[in-house]
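Both lines are given unchanged directly below:

***
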Amino acid sequence: MHAPTSAKGRGRRRALLGAVAAIGAAVLLAGCSTSSGASSAGGDYEKAAKDTKATLTYAVWDENQVKAIKANLEGFNEEYPDIKVNVDVTPFASYWTKLQTQGSSNTLPDVFWMNGPNFQLYAANGKLAPITGEVEAGAIDPAKYSSALNDLYTYDKTQYGVPKDFDTIGVWMNKALFEKAGVAMPSKDWTWDDFQKTGAELSEKLTADGAYGAAGGMDGQTTYYDTIFQAGGNVIDADGTKSEYDTAAAEAGLQFWTDLIASGASPSIKQLTDTTADQWFTSGKLAMYQGGSWFRSALTGTDLEKDVVVYPLPKGKEQATVIHGVSNVVSANTKNKAAAQALQVYLASKQAQQQQGDMGAVIPAYEGTQSAFTKTMPDADLQVFLDAVDYAKPLPVSKNTAAWNTLETNLLPSAFDGSTPVDDVAKQLAQKMDAALTKEQ
């Protein structure tokens, strides 16, 4: 089968960073040589005057969310008509390389998106302004957000990021392809074996259409992290100091994807490198896409929007999914601190996050606003993503996550394509990951 034409990257993909990012992290650290570490200054806060004049840059990575962001900014400008905000969109694949270059020269955007894998690196090197002052002034109430998300953006007992959303993983199902293949939709109470068999049957019956039943890939958050957790394993230990890839459970989680590809249920790793799983799905060439809740925004206005239903991830030894959330942070070196904090505060408000949910951009982080997200596709059962919080596991991270994400990217393809036994790759990955984690201490 041939891959569909590659399209622009979708959503907040977490195909985490690659070799360039690991180099970029080193550049960022080198550029912080004059910093004393985590920012102790920057905790001050004074509410911006209504007539404040400033021009801010707000850096993000998801084109699909720009419409909702601009709607937020209209509300912000009702309060601050003279603060102009330029939205700078950089695709996720190059977002961190760009940000790390800006970090090394102290030219970071005034306000920007931050994720869990990169947060500790920026916080530890004094690149982010704490939200302490905003919290003390009552402008931001951390109690309105999940404690897990607050903790994710806290470093050395100081919080820097305000959660804007959260995401979990589910299986997006193209009902039309199931019907075309003559394959019955499985039960939502399904298992690994059900997923494997359904994927293989779909691929066999859709061969003439150049379509597949399911897809693996190199995005850990949406694929192998989930199955490792479902097998009862972990990627990294609780202290963040040792890899757990060389365990039977982790190996079982990896083997799931090797088996899926070997059976023909999924495109090959080479095909998925050229054209990612989400692109196969939006091209109508994939029946089951294991992806995040953020993918909903990629379906807006497409033919697929009315033909999709969401399933929980299949159950392994246990039920599990990865949970993560993005935050808004302010640069410690912004020249427009009051204006930047005003934007951060507004984006943290119930009004702004409710609007994000109403427009189906994301699942908002603010307490009590999540149900709006499910109503944007009432027949798709987006409630699956909210229910998944009950059995979710935090995205694995450390101070320099990029270093071992690079190892995953370099080593795991040979396990998934079957050229090297999974246990051999897992042991090699664990050894190299342990060495990388030692350097963080």
Remarks:
- The two ends are 47 Å apart (CA to CA).
- The chain is about 40% helix and 10% strand.
